[in-house]
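Appendix C reproduces, verbatim, an entry submitted by the partner laboratory led by Prof. M.T., so that reviewers can inspect both the input and the predicted structure.
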Amino acid sequence: MSIETLIYAMALGGVAVNAAAGVLEAGRKPFDLFGMVVVALAAALGGGSLRDVLLDRTVFWIADQIYLLTAVLAGLVTFALVRVVRLPPRLFLLPDAVGLALFTVSGTQAALAMDAPWLVASMMGVITGVFGGIVRDVLCNEVPLVFTGELYATASWLGALLLVGLVGGGVSPGWSALAAAALVLVLRLAAIRFRWRLPVFTARP
């Protein structure tokens, strides 16, 4: 499998699981089908859209409508599933973590392909990974998970930095992508399990 095919598959996978996560979170609100699809699209396409605008390239789902179709289909399938199967309220955290890992890698790779500097490339990975979740939470009238929950953007950034470092060190892009995605996923799931958080600002009385 070529690196282009691998990254394309990761990006499609990220779109699908983030759309599913969006529907699972929105399911806790009295949204109708249209509202669910809007949240799914925001979660699945928001981060990559902002990344592409910042990199001054054609927005990915406009250049290839397969991404848009994947997001809509994943959202509709998840919507249908939750109407017949009772799911745990926090189940959306699992596909959200997978999407974070996949989007971090695809976003970083997209920036590296445009010869972005290492720090910029890593930030593009973080933006791709977290911005859709921010929009999703705002639409659901929730405080964005990335600002208050267990390690989220930090896990994404460490994975992006690992990817940049491995590629810069001569490791094949495919293995670099897999290693970075695994690091993000493991860190995020471990943070959820063990309640790893960054320090919270509290003003002294």
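Residues 3-26 form the longest helix (24 residues). Additional entries are available on request from the coordinating office.
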